[in-house]
Amino acid sequence: MEIVIGIVAGILTSISMVPQLIKVIKEKDVENISPMMITILLVGVSMWVVYGVILKEWPIILSNAFSVLVNATLLIFYFFFRKRT
Predict the structure, then answer these.
(1) How confident is the model at residue 83 (pLDDT cuts 50, 70, 90)?
(2) How far is CA 35 from CA 12, 14, 40, 76, 85, in A?
(3) pTM
Protein backbone atom coordinates (compact mmCIF):
# COMPACT_ATOMS: atom_id res chain seq x y z
CA MET A 1 0.00 0.00 0.00
CA GLU A 2 2.84 2.42 0.78
CA ILE A 3 4.21 1.96 -2.75
CA VAL A 4 0.85 2.96 -4.25
CA ILE A 5 0.67 6.02 -1.99
CA GLY A 6 4.22 6.96 -2.97
CA ILE A 7 3.49 6.58 -6.67
CA VAL A 8 0.26 8.61 -6.49
CA ALA A 9 1.95 11.33 -4.42
CA GLY A 10 4.83 11.43 -6.88
CA ILE A 11 2.52 11.72 -9.87
CA LEU A 12 0.44 14.49 -8.29
CA THR A 13 3.41 16.57 -7.19
CA SER A 14 5.18 16.00 -10.50
CA ILE A 15 2.29 17.22 -12.62
CA SER A 16 1.48 20.18 -10.37
CA MET A 17 3.53 22.62 -12.47
CA VAL A 18 2.33 21.32 -15.85
CA PRO A 19 -0.70 23.69 -15.98
CA GLN A 20 1.63 26.64 -15.31
CA LEU A 21 3.99 25.50 -18.06
CA ILE A 22 1.11 25.11 -20.52
CA LYS A 23 -0.17 28.60 -19.64
CA VAL A 24 3.29 30.13 -20.15
CA ILE A 25 3.69 28.40 -23.51
CA LYS A 26 0.24 29.46 -24.72
CA GLU A 27 0.31 33.05 -23.49
CA LYS A 28 4.06 33.69 -23.73
CA ASP A 29 3.67 35.69 -20.52
CA VAL A 30 6.02 35.11 -17.58
CA GLU A 31 5.50 38.40 -15.76
CA ASN A 32 4.01 36.67 -12.71
CA ILE A 33 6.55 33.86 -12.56
CA SER A 34 9.25 33.97 -9.89
CA PRO A 35 12.53 32.66 -11.33
CA MET A 36 13.93 32.37 -7.80
CA MET A 37 11.06 30.11 -6.73
CA ILE A 38 11.48 27.93 -9.81
CA THR A 39 15.24 27.73 -9.22
CA ILE A 40 14.82 26.73 -5.58
CA LEU A 41 12.20 24.14 -6.55
CA LEU A 42 14.50 22.84 -9.30
CA VAL A 43 17.36 22.38 -6.83
CA GLY A 44 15.01 20.66 -4.38
CA VAL A 45 13.58 18.16 -6.86
CA SER A 46 17.07 17.52 -8.23
CA MET A 47 18.17 16.59 -4.73
CA TRP A 48 15.16 14.25 -4.47
CA VAL A 49 16.39 12.51 -7.63
CA VAL A 50 19.82 12.03 -6.06
CA TYR A 51 18.18 10.76 -2.87
CA GLY A 52 16.09 8.33 -4.90
CA VAL A 53 19.18 7.08 -6.71
CA ILE A 54 20.96 6.52 -3.39
CA LEU A 55 17.99 4.51 -2.10
CA LYS A 56 17.37 2.87 -5.49
CA GLU A 57 13.70 3.93 -5.24
CA TRP A 58 12.26 4.25 -8.74
CA PRO A 59 9.05 6.09 -7.72
CA ILE A 60 11.18 8.84 -6.14
CA ILE A 61 13.59 8.94 -9.07
CA LEU A 62 11.01 9.01 -11.86
CA SER A 63 8.53 11.43 -10.33
CA ASN A 64 11.20 13.92 -9.38
CA ALA A 65 13.08 13.56 -12.66
CA PHE A 66 9.83 14.52 -14.40
CA SER A 67 9.56 17.51 -12.05
CA VAL A 68 13.13 18.50 -12.96
CA LEU A 69 12.18 18.39 -16.64
CA VAL A 70 9.01 20.47 -16.19
CA ASN A 71 10.62 23.06 -13.92
CA ALA A 72 13.77 23.37 -16.04
CA THR A 73 11.56 23.90 -19.09
CA LEU A 74 9.54 26.53 -17.23
CA LEU A 75 12.74 28.34 -16.21
CA ILE A 76 14.03 28.26 -19.79
CA PHE A 77 10.74 29.72 -21.04
CA TYR A 78 10.94 32.38 -18.32
CA PHE A 79 14.23 33.65 -19.74
CA PHE A 80 13.01 33.24 -23.30
CA PHE A 81 9.72 35.17 -22.85
CA ARG A 82 10.65 37.76 -20.23
CA LYS A 83 10.48 41.40 -21.24
CA ARG A 84 13.92 42.86 -21.50
CA THR A 85 14.29 46.43 -20.37
Answers:
(1) confident
(2) 22, 18, 9, 10, 17
(3) 0.88
